[in-house]
Amino acid sequence: MTNPADLTLAQLRDALKEKKVSSLEATDAYLARIEKAKPLNTFVTVTADKARDMAKASDAKISKGEGGDLEGVPLGIKDLFCTEGVLTTAGSHILDGFTPRYESTVTTNLWRDGAVMLGKLNLDEFAMGSSNETSFYGNVINPWRRECDHTPLTPGGSSGGSSAAVAARLCAAATATDTGGSIRQPASLTNTVGVKPTYGRVSRWGIVAFASSLDQAGPMAQDVRDAAIMLKSMAGHDPKDSTCINRPVPDYEAALGASLKGMKIGVPKEYRIDGMPDEIEKLWAQGIDWMKDAGCEIVDISLPLTKYALPVYYIVAPAEASSNLARYDGVKYGHRTKDFDDILSMYENTRAEGFGDEVKRRILIGTYVLSAGYYDAYYLRAQKVRKRIFDEFTEAFSKVDLILTPSAPSAAFGLGEKTSDPVQMYLNDVFTVTGNLAGLPGASVPAGYDKQGLPLGLQLLARPFDEETMFKGMYAIEQAAGATKRPQVWWE
Amino acid sequence: MSIDKDTVRKVARLARIAEPEQRLEPLAKELSGILDWIEQLNEVDVEGVEAMASTVDVTLPLREDVPQDGPTGGGQPDNVVANAPKTEDHFFVVPKVVE
After folding, report:
1. What is the CATH number of the domain that holds A16?
2. CA triplet B79, B82, B86: central angle to 5 degrees?
């Protein structure tokens, strides 16, 4: 028997069902790997005892012929999801010691279906970052390295712990969240599959809030099938999130392998940006050819407002964040300063000590754009441009079924390379952020490698709630690309 | 530069984040860099466009105004204060606010 931790989620699910391997064996295999992968810094908390207890419970169910869709499958959980009785940090000092008394809806759904929790995965502080360099718990290191040098590379962000853990096979799959690209960009940088569902497809309840009109949870997985299985379990109506839509969750796995014949694929010319490496340009052209070969019709489309998406995002997201993060005041949970004279200095010093630089920067921007005299000029204008971007996509999707673009403007870059200029870092999300502003489902699929051997992904965007069509397209890219390489294990 | 030192001081106070005096100038530069980049939105014609706050086009659902079961329900003071840095008899304790 091969190491159960070498299987995909779908393979492990089947092996568990056929009793070829027990959940406890699989869980122990992952825990052993996690122990040896400390240099990657993917986990903030490893819940080994809880994992073994959950695995034993799953094995008992399986032996009785019972169990859910994910029975006994060990997962990593981004440390932005509240987990009952387990430290939840959001990668921030200000949530020191926060141990939720409740479970997020997404993780509740996963445990309902039998999944096992290995632990909580590192991330950018409050999911604010594109390189996992803003976490209070330190940088996550990408398991992928360039062929000729050993520079530590970013696994992307904010779901960098999730992408690195899945790429290094430290869990069968992971949960992640995406506010401007935080699932798709890390997936692209680590040769993993990342899916950001339609806004409203997955409940946000119990997920530490960043920008509530943009946040959406989704899976980070080893392949397209695994992502389909994960999303089916994570998605679904939840009365506790008023923006979570009540409509049935399709069997996404069943959509895989369907013919793409006659499907219309949009290629937006505005996604051809200055300074984009040739390799990404070529990969995109290659992707277009794969879709043609699959029987699709390629349609040139125009999304002229694309270049304004990031500036809109950097008003809307910080504005919402400044409101959401007002709750961290040293009163209800987490860190409280020891250095204060009165309630005002208690608030101000608690927040000064508890938040990192990027989070402070965004709270200040958000506070500024919402403050008296600036609201109309910034926030209201941004919301209007957002509406125009939304309309532009609605128009495009009246002509095409899917939109194909690169996932990220570069391969994984070195840690520290982009931290000096916030705007340079923000440009990482140039291809993904439009999907959040318009609420569309988007996914990154491994599609090839650059000349240094680093993975590159392609992105598909679909109509709202048409994840099934997106999964059909994703599977076709995966089959055509065959980009199934694994990083060499150098960290053990 | 769209933001000066005094504006940073004012915004930091509004945001309840203590910023030491020597940080105000560098922050003014950083934030201005970001806001200058954002200024390009002024090129977009938004005449008559409705501001969009959410992509979900539904009216908020209503429910009976009764306590819920589970974690969002009432009657759980222990859970509510469990993570607070300082409590007394299920109250959050803060520095004196009223003289």
Report:
1. 3.90.1300.10
2. 140
Write down the pTM of the prediction.
0.97
Which segments of chain B does DSSP mark as H helices, in order?
Answer: 5-14, 21-38, 77-81
What's the number of domains chain B is made of? 1
**Bridge-based pairing state of the strands A264-268 and B91-92:** unpaired
Name the residue facing B11 among A245, A346, A367 (closest C-beta). A367
Q: Is residue A37 part of a domain?
A: yes
Q: Is residue B15 part of a domain?
A: yes
CA–CA dist A30, A21 (Å, integer) = 13
- Whether residue B54 is contained in a domain is answered as no
Which chain B positions have a beta carbon within 8 Å of A361's beta carbon? 27, 30-31, 34
The string of DSSP codes covering A418-442 is SSS-HHHHHGGGTTTHHHHHHT--E
Is residue A432, in this structure, part of any structural domain at all?
A: no
**Domain range holding B30?**
5-40
The answer to whether position B30 is within a domain reads yes
Active site residues of A: 78, 158, 182
Within a domain: residue A169?
yes
CB contact under 8 A, A387 and B51: yes
- The per-residue pLDDT for B11 is 97
Count up the domains in chain A and report the number: 1
Residue contact A315–B17, C-beta within 8 A? no
Interface confidence (ipTM) of the complex: 0.96
3-state secondary structure A76-113: EEECCECECCECCCCCCHHHCCCCCCCCCHHHHHHHHC
Q: Is residue A136 part of a domain?
A: yes
Classify residue B16: in a domain, yes or no: yes
Q: Which two tokens stand for residue B9?
A: 């001081």
Please indicate whether, in this complex, the C-beta atoms of A387 and B63 are within 8 angstroms of each other. Answer: no
Model confidence pLDDT, tens digit, residues A75-134: 999 999 999 999 999 999 999 999 999 999 999 999 999 999 999 999 999 999 999 999
Give the pLDDT mean for A175-195: 98
For residue A83, give its domain range: 6-262
**Among B residues 49-78, those touching chain A with beta carbons less than 8 Å apart:** 49-56, 58, 60-61, 63, 70-72, 76
- SS3 breakdown of chain B: % helix, strand, coil, rounded to 5? 40, 5, 55
pLDDT digits (tens, 9 = 90+) for A29-64: 999 999 999 999 999 999 999 999 999 999 999 999
